[in-house]
Amino acid sequence: MANPNIYNVTALYGNTSTLAISSTTTNVVSNPASSGYVYRVNFLSVANISTNNYAMTAELNIAGSNTEIIKNVVIPANSALTVIAKDTSLYILENSSIQLYSSQNSAFKAICSYEQLS
Cα–Cα 20 to 30 A to 58, which of 27, 36, 79, 91? Predict the structure, then answer.
């Protein structure tokens, strides 16, 4: 697993991904091993689209080791939570990902905006 040098960026690609969150851990953004990129996550928002309050978790997975970004945070019904914003951006190195899961299937949707740098 390399950590590409981003001092002299030669490529910068903007991306957005969406995810219907379930009770199974799922990647909202994933940087494969040996990709040659560093991902900068500028925005991650989770919306509770249900009529009940439920909890969800976001984790940073680095080579199979998870660290919680937020854990079991209850988001009120019909509300949203900004998990990562431009002023708190997060770098995703190779062989790393941001994973989401919730206490309830079909209660949440996520949107993630990130840049691929090389």
Answer: 36
